Amino acid sequence: MSFTNTNPTATTSWKNLEKLADNRSTLQAYFNADLERASAFSIDWNQFFVDYSKTHIDAEIKASLVSLAKEVGLEGAREAYFGGTTINQTEGRAVLHTALRAKKDADIRVDGANVVPGVYAVRKKIRAFSESIIDGTKKSSSGQAFTDVVNIGIGGSDLGPAMITEALGYYKNHLNVHFISNVDGDHVMEVLKKVNPKTTLFVVVSKTFSTQETLTNATTAKQWLVNELGAAAVGDHFVAVSTNLSAIEAFGIQAENVFSMNDWVGGRFSLWSAVGLSIALAVGPDNFEALLEGANNMDEHFATTPLENNIPVMLALITVWYNNFLDAQSEAIIPYSQYLHRLPAYLQQGIMESNGKSVDRDGIPVTYDTGNIIWGEPGTNSQHAFFQLMHQGTKLIPAHFIGFTNPLHGNQDHHDKLMANFFAQTEALMQGKTEAQVREELEKKGITGQALEKLVPFKIFHGDNPTTTLLIEKLTPKTLGALVAMYEHKIFVEGVVWNIYSYDQWGVELGKQLANVILKEFSSKEEVSHDASTAQLLARYKR
Ligand code: F6P
């Protein structure tokens, strides 16, 4: 198990890839040159079919990317990641979200102790608790069954549970689940407006239990409950998920209502832990466990499959190819499923908080691009928004298209229309429309002469836009778990290739400190020195 520091630009493969990038061909030309291309550049795994043949990769580029992964020690790093080595070295921690979905008989050691029994003990508690809330045996302080659950958290303590709860909306039970994250008081007030204090359960989620937004929102919610039902009700209406047991006690939540988590789970990878309590409440513990099982299946695929057939590895290497050799700045993620409308936002945190780093693992500023910019919205809505820029703009935007073979509600007519758009877009992005095609089309419409000449340039589509298609059988807890785990491992592979630490987030911590300094100023008379712009804005705000 080794986690070595290798400057990727010093490898033979990197230099080779630079040359290959200079001579890269077009997608059309790749297809013309290789009749087997579609199947050769696809991976068929469980309910997933991943087609990356519409990316600028040929056999030689693929081989060089795989050899880059080997040269930077990906296989050893992968073992270290799964084995509990302290790969989050700047925080002195292992990175073991994979242990949260490991099989019961797995043996994964941190400081010599197997962590799996502890994981299963928390899972058992999640099951018992969520079952008792769902079936109404656990009552509120007023003796009624709970009808509403309010998750209070931010970042990983919100985005994961919120995204999954939306994504599994089809599997939801009768409980209404709400999310409060923003410290904007309008967010908490809007949610409180909708719920009945007598039948509402608050789940306060904070790994550190020190995050300003979460503590502020939890305090407001608690005060609201106390005003409505009295202080004695807090014990029955508040539970917490955290590693910081003493802070929870100080907040007034009883020890038996606390779900613990471990410091070897990063916030943005924590939905598999007790942070997923709101998911278990929304869709029931069986579905929550199926989500974990799906993620575990992807873990096994990632851990054991040779690099060239390994989904997260190949997707990460394609990102590296575009990011570092073809100058793409961003990557779009377009799920063709309304249920997955929060997936891009969730992945923005996962990917950009992890790989937004500019110093390598030796502490030296990198000389190459690292984390790319992630954005996206579901199709077909996004087609009527930013697809214009993808088709005819000047930017290179590799995109992931995520679609499902089967609809959930059985509306085949809708699904056929949805998926016809899905396939048509990836085809059009690649093929574009040539001048000859445009002329022919216009002539067929009876447009000729000057009028035709004027229009032609605007109707040409350059094409050659890369997409990777993830076609999945059906949106189920299991396939969703595998999909999210796939992106987690993709993040890991990219971090290894870029020789950066993917599991800290000092940039976000800075934001927390800065806001506190200005907040103190609001209530003190003390003059603090700021830049001229900030000073002017603060003066206007305080007046
Ligand atoms: O955004 C920074 C961050 O540290 C995330 O990594 C984390 O998910 C979020 O803040 C919330 O932190 P906590 O769960 O400790 O409240």
Task: Give a written overview of the molecule.
With 543 residues, the chain is an alpha/beta fold. It folds into three domains: 39-57 and 310-431 and 466-503, Glucose-6-phosphate isomerase like protein, domain 1 (Rossmann fold, 3-Layer(aba) Sandwich), CATH 3.40.50.10490; 119-289, Rossmann fold, CATH 3.40.50; 510-542, no CATH class. The chain contains 22 helices and 13 strands. It has helices at residues 12-22, 27-33, 37-40, 59-71, 74-83, 116-134, 159-167, 185-194, 212-229, 234-237, 245-251, 277-283, 285-304, 311-325, 343-355, 387-392, 412-431, 435-444, 449-459, 477-498, 506-523, 532-542; strands at 42-45, 48-51, 109-110, 113-114, 148-152, 176-180, 200-205, 238-242, 258-260, 330-335, 373-375, 399-404, 467-472. The strands form three sheets. A six-stranded mixed sheet has the order 1-2-13-12-10-11, sandwiched between helices. A five-stranded parallel sheet has the order 6-5-7-8-9, with helices on both faces. Strand 3 and strand 4 form a beta hairpin. Helix 14 crosses helix 20 (477-498). It is globular and about 80 Å long. The N and C termini lie far apart (60 Å). 6-O-phosphono-beta-D-fructofuranose is lined by residues 153-157, 206-208, 211, 214, 267-268, 505, 508.
